[in-house]
Amino acid sequence: MKNYTSQVEKNQHLQYEDMVEAANRMFANNAEVEEIAEFLVALSKKGETAREVAALASVMKKHAISLDVPEARYLDNCGTGGDGSNSFNISTTSAFVLAGAGAKVAKHGNRKISSAAGSHDVLDALGIPSHFAPGDMSKMLEKEGMAFIFAPIVHPKMKKIGEARQKIGKPTIFNLVGPLTNPVPLETQFTGINRPDFLMEYASVLRMLGRERAIVVSGAGGMDEASLAGQNSFVLMDKGDLIPFTLTAEDVGLEYAPLSAIRGGSAKENAGMIRDVLKGKRGAKFDTVVFNTGIGLFANGMAESINEGIELAIDSILSGNALQKLEAVVAFSTEIGKVAVAK
């Protein structure tokens, strides 16, 4: 590990194979927390490359618990987080709207990191606990067409790496790889990063990891979601081609709104906001969700354009399908909980 740290400290980018070796050493039982921390800090100071991110993501996925799921065109809409916007849980809400529109959604996620309530904090508040066994996640995906994949459950070998990240206390390359390590095989993906300078590289990582089609967004106001607050930068990765484009809310028939209009609160408060949106309450939160869902449906290939995707998203909510999907997942979770107690 020290050899790779030394290379990186000299501002040398690691080749893919070298990063694979360094990553495997981080996951090894005899890895030292201090050495992991030194390597991650050195990488961060140098600036991570697409090759390094792709190599780490591939190793992390190999060390994950595999999920037995039916073959389908799965979509993940998890972003990197860490944008500091304190927004309510946009991608979690969008997951129900995507599923209500017929997409197969396997949403990777975690507890709060920089927001007041992370995806799994708010899911707990909705009645969807995060202590599912891997088999339960697979069953949910098969039965409901959507599942929430709780990162600490499917990535059990992260203990020492987690200690190193805590010791550092700042973002590292692992903040970038989170959305890339879903153990469910993904053909399509819609993800966001709050680093516009890394947008094209991140799209090329998705290409290296074998996605057929994906969209990466860096949102207005530094968000890792598409925002109503100005111009959003995107890259569409389609069958290997990388196509950059920009969009504002007004470009797709939605209204401008400041970031303050989508601010969240506690897990309980955010759960209430999610229910309000899924019940059809109009406003900036509704528009932000249908904007991001529309892009997700376009990324998944269910819509021929983002405008068409937004129409499908609005229909998913106003028809009651998105709310029904939430209630079905809550009911499934309750049943799983009863079985666990009975055992």
UniProtKB/TrEMBL annotation:
Keywords from the named record: Amino-acid biosynthesis, Aromatic amino acid biosynthesis, Glycosyltransferase, Magnesium, Metal-binding, Transferase, Tryptophan biosynthesis
Record domain Glycosyl transferase family 3 N-terminal: where: 7-64
Sequence ranges assigned to domain Glycosyl transferase family in this UniProt record: 73-323
Domain of life: Bacteria
Co-factor: note: Binds 2 magnesium ions per monomer.
A GO molecular function held by the record: anthranilate phosphoribosyltransferase activity
Binding site for 5-phospho-alpha-D-ribose 1-diphosphate: 79, 82-83, 87, 89-92, 107-115, 119
Pfam families hit by this protein: Glycos_trans_3N (PF02885), Glycos_transf_3 (PF00591)
Gene3D superfamilies the record matches: Nucleoside phosphorylase/phosphoribosyltransferase catalytic domain, Transferase, Pyrimidine Nucleoside Phosphorylase, Chain C
Residues given in the record as Mg(2+) 1 binding sites: 91, 225
Binding site for anthranilate 2: 165
Segments traversing the membrane: none
Function: Catalyzes the transfer of the phosphoribosyl group of 5-phosphorylribose-1-pyrophosphate (PRPP) to anthranilate to yield N-(5'-phosphoribosyl)-anthranilate (PRA).
Oligomeric and partner information: Homodimer.
Protein name, as recorded: Anthranilate phosphoribosyltransferase
Annotated organism of origin: Sporosarcina highlanderae
Classification of source organism: Bacteria, Bacillati, Bacillota, Bacilli, Bacillales
